[in-house]
Amino acid sequence: MTERVLICYGTRKGTTAEMAEAIASIIKESDATVDVVNLKKEKIPARVEDYDLIVVGSGIQIGSWTSEPRDFIKNHLDILSKKKVALFVVCMDAAHPERCEWAQQNYLDKIVMENPGLQPISTALIPGRIDLNQHNFVTRRMLKSIISKDFPPGEEVPEVMDFRDMDKVREWAKTLISE
Ligand SMILES: Cc1cc2nc3c(=O)[nH]c(=O)nc-3n(C[C@H](O)[C@H](O)[C@H](O)COP(=O)(O)O)c2cc1C
C-alpha cells in the first residue's frame, strides 16, 4: 500500500498545476497522504526520502521541460533511483496520436536516459491547452504559425485550444496507487 506521495511539478501557464491537483485528488481517495509542490513557487520538502511514491511533472514549451522539475530529478537522483517514481508531461503533441511516439521519446524517455538509475513505474503524456490571449505578440505569432499547420489552409487558428481530458488523467492516477 502506498502511504506517502509527493507530486511535484513545473508549470508556465498553470495547466500542469491542474493536472497535479487532479492526480492528487485521486490518490487521496486511497489511504495515502499527498503533498503537492509547485517547484517554481514552493520549497522542496526536506525529506524526499520519506515518500513512497514521487510523481514529477512538467509542461512542455519548445520541446523542453521547465527547469525546476528537471533539476529536482537530477539533484535527487540517488533517492529517486530507489523509489517508485512516475513522470508526466503536459503538452499539445499528446493530443495528436501520430505525434505521441515522438513525444514519448523526446519528452519522457529522454529524461529517463539523461538520469541513469531512474526507472519510472509509469510515464504519461497528458494533453494540455493553449490560450493565445495569455501570450505576447511575438509568441502569439510564432504559435499561430506552428499551429496553423494542424488546420486546413485558410482556416483561422482558434484563440483557445483545449485538449484537457481530466477523466484520462484520473485513470492514470489510479494506476499509480494500484502498482
Ligand atoms: C510558447 C509555447 C511553446 C510550446 N511548445 C510545445 C512543444 O514544443 N510541444 C508540445 O507538445 N506542446 C507545446 N506547447 C503546448 C504546452 O505544452 C501546453 O500549452 C501546456 O498545456 C502547457 O502547460 P503549462 O501551462 O503547465 O506550462 C507550447 C506552448 C507554448 C505557449
What are the low-pLDDT stretches, counting only 5+ consecutive residues below 50? none
Reading the helices and strands in chain order gives EHEEHHEHEEHEH
Strand ordering within the main sheet: 2-1-3-4-5
Bound molecules: flavin mononucleotide
For this structure, the CATH topology of the largest domain is: Rossmann fold
The main sheet comes to: 5 strands, parallel
* Residues in helix, %: 25-40%
CATH architecture of the largest domain: 3-Layer(aba) Sandwich
Assembly state (oligomeric):
single chain
So what's the CATH class of the largest domain? Alpha Beta
- Specify the overall morphology: elongated
Number of strands: 7
- Structural class call reads alpha/beta
Strand content: 15-25%
Distance between the termini: 9 Å
Domains (count): 2
Task: Using the CA coordinates, give the radius of gyration.
Answer: 17 Å
Q: Please, what is the average pLDDT? A: 95
Determine the number of helices (DSSP H or I, runs of at least 4 residues): 6
CATH-defined superfamily of the largest domain = Flavodoxin domain
Give your account of this protein's structure:
The protein is of the alpha/beta class and 179 residues long. The protein has 2 domains: 4-128 and 163-178, Rossmann fold, CATH 3.40.50.360; 131-162, no CATH class. The chain is built from 6 helices and 7 strands, in the order E-H-E-E-H-H-E-H-E-E-H-E-H. Strands 2-1-3-4-5 form a 5-stranded parallel beta sheet, sandwiched between helices. Helix 1 links the parallel strand 1 (4-10) and strand 2 (33-38). The protein is elongated, with a radius of gyration of 17 Å. The mean pLDDT is 95. Bound molecules: flavin mononucleotide (FMN).
